[in-house]
Amino acid sequence: MDTSHISSLASLLQDSEKLAADINGGQELPRVVRSITQMVTDGDQLWSRVSEGAASREQADVQAAILLGSQGFNLPNLSHHIDQLTAAQTFAPIQSIQATDIDGFLRNERQNALTSAILEHSKNTNDDLASFVVSAEQERWEDQKRKVLSSIEFSADTTSDMRFQSFNDSLNMTNTMSFSRGRDLIVSSTGAPIRARLSPEELKYARALSEHNAAYLCGALLGESQTLVDKMAQVAEQLELKDVALLWQVLQAIQCKNIDQGNDRLSLMHEAKRFLEKKHLKDLRATVYGNLNKAALGGVPGTAQLIRAYLNVRPVPRMFSDEPVINDHPVWAVLYHALRCGDLACAREVAQQAGMADLAGKFQECQRNPHQRLGDASAAELRIKYMRDFGLNLCTGNPHQRVVLAVLAGCDVDSDHGPVGMASIEDYLWIMMCKALAAPISHSQDVLPLAKLQSRITDDYGETHFDAAQRPLQFAYVLLLTAQFEVAIEFLYRTDVHKCHAVHMAIALNQLGLLRNTAQTIDPVLVKEGSNCQLNLPRLITSYTRRFEMSEPELALEYYYALKEKYEPLWLQCVIELALETKAFTKILGQRNADGGTVQGALDKFVCTGSTGSQERNRVATAVAEAAESRGLNEEAVALYELANEKQKCVDLLTKVLSLQVDASQ
After folding, report:
1. pTM score, two decimals?
2. Of 224, 229, 483, 623, which cross-links 508 as Cys (Cβ 3.0–4.6 Å)?
């Protein structure tokens, strides 16, 4: 054998082994060698799979034919109809035409116009849909944000005021239907709202408010002297809440029908001073009758004998040996209690008996003055005497004498008058009120304006001095006596226990016109502008009713009525939101019967009777219907339009709803 041939075979063997090594790649994998039998078996398996797919397709075709036949399709002619369908008329390109082919030109122009209109309408529809989705998402986020912020009451952050932006919009914008106010809703595990459990105080207050509203709306209060303050005071007495009843007694004392608009709070301060004087007289009488043996009450009934008996129980020692004595008691102590009881006639008589003719003349001048104070000349004369005998801010001499002369002259305003003035908070307030009500002296720094007295109570002393956290009613009592109604209400509302008292005090004072309201409903609950404080009544009421308005919508309407006179757009907005969120349209607005009659709702109580009341009710029902339609509540809106006698709007919306139903059924 040729040697070259052998070498070529060897090289071929090496190349084959090298190729095999490259194929293996150094991995220890098994080599699969298929025989002819195995290849036949694999082919049969593939053929069986293809045959099964064809059978399944045939079975699917049979099922499809059965389904189409059950729906009324003509199966024998179905293929013929399908063959006739062509997409050429819809999607075929425009045929090229000759320059002189007028029919073709017009046909192409018509197709172009139709195509452009369809494309433009499709684009507008997509844009409107995208805009609607974005606005709905933004509104949903705004709702969530307001619900979070609604839990943070009285926040100093201005972002919390966004919660009342809808109220501001309702006052300043014509379209009040585009905003939804967030509310807190407590629901059970099933999703149903939990009925709010009102406390006994809240229930009695609400019942009294409802009765007062009903009497006021039907005209039963015309000519009667009882106000909402009087009715709420009766509720506090029935509840046997002595401290709360005392607050209502203060409001009863200061409620005035004829208030000097130029200085109204000073007039109210005079009434508060009279309240303290009557209360002191009552306290003296209670002390005497509680110690009759020691008091030795007798003689002619009157303030003088009552003071004598009181000093028998609680004697006051003589400060100086030469001090005059009346009925075995120091004359200055007797004069102080006579003034403290508000009996100027008794004080003048005691001064005459003690030989103090000049002082008796001063008391007589106060009696003749309608404001029961000295004139400028007499007050200036008495100030000079006071400074000569005692000097300002010097705690010397007889303390009762200092108090008597200081309250008559209205001087020494920075002195607390030691043991006499600090015996009780009421004694201190009475002394300061007398100084604030005294005749102002020209170019004098030793005066106590009302604003300065109020600032001393709230700023200089404040809640810490009065231990307001532990005794909130006492601090509120001081604020009410000094005619700081807005501050007192806001303070009480910050305490959960006394929140209901604060709300009803605000409503009662607002009806009397004694409350200063904020200009904007988005303002905080209390706004301070210099020495004046303003209360955001709408914010106070809506935050109070939020807890029970979902389960007691009729009760919420009673409180909303307090906003109707001054905040008509806001009242309407509250009614709209209440109806939409509770879905209690029949309960709130009523409904139309099948015979054409109308079933009244809770709202009918707060609208006028007769044709005017019907128009107002229809106006509210129309506003609620428009808001419901804008939120997709078409069926409810149809019923509300019918209730409001808006027949055209009712038919239009009903046609729209029916067309949508018919289209959906097809």
Report:
1. 0.70
2. 229
